[in-house]
Amino acid sequence: MDLTPLIRPGLQLVERYGPAGFRIAGVVHTGPVLVFPDRTVDWAPAEISEAGLAPVVAAGGVELLLIGLGRRMYPIAAELRLALRAQGIAVEAMDTGAACRTYNVLLAEDRRVAAALLPPR
């Protein structure tokens, strides 16, 4: 199914991803990014932590955060999940490809979603 017709102009659709970075809404981003429906920002986390994800909390209105962890998945710390849940944000961690695809589907459904994406290396 082609989701492209379902995406309103101006939304941040993840078009491509690879070891060097991402192409989102026609713009190439090198390295990790935080993707929101209305904007994409470069992200340089030292680690996946509450401090590293503070821009997601500050953005407001995010109900679900998808974390793309590169080529392999590992558990997100329970403390981080609880801290984000206290802010009303559910967290789902997965490999980056799955996070990009899931983000695009949820974006097309008009969900209040964001993605923290590490390039798959």
Brief write-up:
With 121 residues, the chain is an alpha/beta fold. It has helices at 54-59, 78-86, 96-108; strands at residues 14-18, 21-24, 27-30, 33-36, 39-42, 64-69, 90-94, 113-118. The strands form 2 sheets. It has a 5-stranded mixed beta sheet with strand order 5-4-8-6-7, with helices on both faces. A 3-stranded antiparallel beta sheet has the order 1-2-3, covered by helices on one side.
Number of strands: 8
- The helix count comes to 3
Task: Tell me the CATH architecture.
Answer: 3-Layer(aba) Sandwich
Strand residues, percent: 25-35%
Uncertain segments are none
Assign an overall shape. Answer: globular
Largest beta-sheet details: 5 strands, mixed
Order of helices and strands: EEEEEHEHEHE
CATH class: Alpha Beta
Neighbour order of strands in the largest sheet: 5-4-8-6-7
Instruction: Determine the mean pLDDT.
Output: 92
Describe the model.
Helix content is 23%, strand content 31%. It contains three helices and eight strands. The chain is globular. The chain has 121 residues and is α/β, with parallel strands linked by helices. Strand 4 (33-36) and strand 5 form a beta hairpin. The chain has helices at 54-59, 78-86, 96-108; strands at 14-18, 21-24, 27-30, 33-36, 39-42, 64-69, 90-94, 113-118. The relative contact order is 0.24.
